[in-house]
Specification:
Length: 442
């Protein structure tokens, strides 16, 4: 009997630069690709009662899984799709199909680590093992000039130690074929109704044109870099609030692993060779570095990124209470720019970096709300949610993270004048709030 291996797709929903898939192929075994919709995530609640994942990200992941299945079928394989607990489903598949290994991308935050640890223990009882690979970061931790435990706490110090010294490795090639084990029911891909999610309507004039999947992610990368060459002005436009083209919009595909950060870097370098480099092209790389930095902080500080005192382990203020943020959650603060930002997030799943900073600052500094409620709200609604980036940024903005300043406070009226000078963003969402079904629901 031929050796067999499961390739467990997690937050790496792609064929290109997928080390788990490539290593399994190189092992010359029959491969069973698997994706499991973890119902604890897709049907679960956060500690503050938000859905752990709202409709926009759920739909994005469904589309990403559909695209992954399509790309595997093109290469002679298929994708097994199941719903339930990954550690139980993959163990049963491994036992029934008599595989030797499970290949997967290693995750680093609490919930994901618990799942992989439980599966690893179960597999050990039947003489099988997990083989972990990398896929979320631009740089390999083994290439860094320091151990994870000594990662600099300052982003600037981290950047200076890394960017001029460490080369970014090339993405692993896209496989032409995937040796597949036949006679396994691939299963159906669920829809929003299965998870009890409301259907979404992509009818806003901005910021919700996201379609999940590797194919769409690669197309957006090409559109931004090559078709429109929008990256040339990224530094000047990145803080805008309204529209599709002011930023790369790559973050949802990076978060779901439909795009590899190494692939983005490789295409960016090709663009610079052909068109020249400037501050804007550098700044796109700069943002990829931030993703790595927050992931390393998650590895270094573990569960502290989720605790009230953050990675600085500060005693929480008695004045910061969850109930102080209720108007914020419902976009009823009375501060137009803040309410517009919250409406945009709830109704599209998207929020720009500038909008996130404004919302976080207002909740923490003006309303004295609990930053963890804000972080869970973002976790629920963001189409590009990533635990390390989300909680790392909230630590940073709440003054309990990597910012040297204890308070990063933004005046919303000044910010509105600076980043929405013609009032287009606020006007759009103010009209929407007054005229849509949202007004009735609210």
């Amino acid at each position: 009997m031929e050796n067999r291996a499961i390739v467990w797709f997690r937050n790496d929903l792609r064929i290109h630069d997928n080390e788990a898939l490539t290593e399994a192929i190189n092992k010359k075994v029959q491969i069973i690709p698997v994706y499991v919709f973890d119902e604890r995530i897709f049907k679960g609640k956060t500690s503050y009662g938000f859905d752990k994942i709202q409709s926009f990200r759920t739909q994005f992941i469904i589309e990403s899984v559909e695209d992954l299945r399509k790309n595997l079928r093109i290469r002679g394989a298929d994708l097994l799709v199941r719903m339930g607990k990954p550690e139980e489903i993959i163990f049963e598949l491994a036992k029934t199909l008599k595989t030797q290994w499970v290949y997967c991308n290693r995750e680093r935050t609490y919930e994901e680590v618990m799942v992989q640890d439980k599966l690893e223990h179960k597999l050990w009882t039947i003489g099988q093992e997990i083989r972990y690979t990398r896929g979320k970061m631009l740089y390999y931790t083994s290439d860094l000039p320091f151990p994870i435990t000594q990662t600099p706490e300052s982003f600037t110090a981290f950047r200076k130690e890394v960017e001029k010294i460490i080369p970014v490795r090339k993405p692993v090639p896209v496989p032409e074929t995937v040796p597949y084990m036949e006679m396994v029911d691939p299963g159906i891909i669920p829809d929003l109704d299965y998870f009890g999610k409301k259907n979404i309507v992509k009818n806003h004039i901005e910021n919700n044109n996201f379609c999940g999947g590797e194919s769409a992610g690669l197309a957006q990368l090409n559109y931004y870099l090559n078709e429109k060459q929008l990256v040339k002005n990224y530094f000047e436009t990145r803080n805008d609030l309204f529209g599709w083209e002011f930023s790369s919009k790559l973050s949802p595909w990076l978060a779901a692993g439909c795009l590899s950060p190494k692939k983005v870097f490789e295409e960016l370098k090709k663009f610079e060779i052909n068109n020249g480099e400037n501050k804007s092209t550098y700044w796109l790389y700069f943002e990829l570095l931030w993703r790595d930095f927050f992931r390393l902080m998650g590895k270094k500080h573990g569960n502290n990124i989720f605790k009230s005192g953050g990675i600085k382990n500060r005693k929480p203020s008695p004045f910061h209470k969850p109930e102080n943020g209720l108007d914020w959650v419902h976009a009823n603060t009375g501060e137009e720019i803040i309410d517009a930002c919250i409406l945009q997030l709830k109704e599209t799943g998207y929020s720009s970096n500038r909008a996130r900073q404004l919302m976080a600052s207002y909740l923490v500094n003006d309303l004295k709300g609990d930053w963890r409620m804000g972080a869970e709200f973002f976790e629920s609604y963001l189409i590009d949610y990533d635990p390390c980036s989300n909680y790392g940024n909230w630590n940073y903005l709440a003054g309990i993270g990597n910012d040297s300043r204890e308070e990063r406070c933004f005046n919303p009226k000044i910010q509105a004048q600076k980043y929405d000078p013609d009032g287009k963003f606020v006007s759009y969402w103010t009209v929407y709030k007054k005229t849509s079904v949202f007004a009735t629901l609210n």
